[in-house]
From TrEMBL:
InterPro entries assigned: Bestrophin-like (IPR021134), cNMP-bd_CS (IPR018488), cNMP-bd_dom (IPR000595), cNMP-bd_dom_sf (IPR018490), RmlC-like_jellyroll (IPR014710)
Region (Disordered): 349-368
Cross-referenced Pfam families: Bestrophin, cNMP_binding
Protein name: Cyclic nucleotide-binding domain-containing protein
Cyclic nucleotide-binding domain sequence ranges: 278-346
Amino acid sequence: MQGRLNDVNMLISAHLPRDPLSGRPTPEAIDMAQRVARYGRLISILFIANVAERFRPLCTEAGLRRLAQRGALTPAEVDLLLRFDPGSWPYVLTTWNIASVRQAASGDGVLAGAPVGLHQTLLERLADLRGTCASVEDDLAARMPVAYPQFVQVVVDSLLFTTAPAMVDKLGGAWAVLGAVEMTLFYSGMLELSKVFLDPFDSEEYGDKSLAVIRTDTFLSENHFLASRWLRAVEEPLPWEVRQAAPCTPRARLLQLARGHPLLAPLLTRGAPPPAGVLDGLEELLLERGETVIRQGEFASSMYLVVRGECLMSVNGQRVGTLGSGQLFGERALLEAAPRIATVEAARGRELSPCRRPSGPGPGTATP
């Protein structure tokens, strides 16, 4: 389980899209990675709760509510899980993780630009995780009943009790006692070890607990730490992308932003000064939620590039789309003096870079 959860979190963290300005993963990418990691932690918690008696209280409605109070679940997720029996909860969470990966890999999801092989690998690891959980449950269900070693213990105790008297005639009293002690230690140790193998999670509280081979609390602690370790490794700009350069002026920041966009990047060669006039019309705007950026029917003179945040686009009062970080809108204004065909307003606080159409040369030489 740990290996597959580690693979999923590591691969997702390594392929998160990054903000071209800050070098950090985008907020949407971090949300997706944190959700997958959180579901992974819950899979391990609820799976152990189903097979280990000491964590069994978590397999109740009260247990789920308590997890929600600690921030591990949302109220909506609790309500959905309660529609299934507790034994199905780890598999429901695995399905949610698979759906998260599929959603992130489709359309404009945060993993849409990742290699196709990544999506297939993630789905295979999650499917393997389901198989691993099922195999553990199958092994526990098919194990020998603990009642059998109890019967064996009675037989062995009877054998050991009669060993010393049986060996007195041939070995003498002292050797008979030593032989009986040796056999007692050997058989009792083997018996206790067999009980541990038959009850690895100590669910039946039988046998010597000091010999337990699976420490479920340690297992859960490791899973909780590993789930967040991979994301922490990429939260900051990657080391080879950190440049020792002069302080980033507003113009240099805009140049960095423009070089990160596929429409503007061909005009701006990294390491060379930008062509004359390319950034002359570029500036920055900081808008509040609900503020209108452009309005349908008004005269168009600027194109906008979303730096951070989100915009809502509507036509004739009907919402037709959402624009996120790195997306352009209003580019028609750089080519012709025509009215706006849509209204765009701020969905939440954001930063925009408008590029205005020059008034002199005309549409053919408009500055992008």
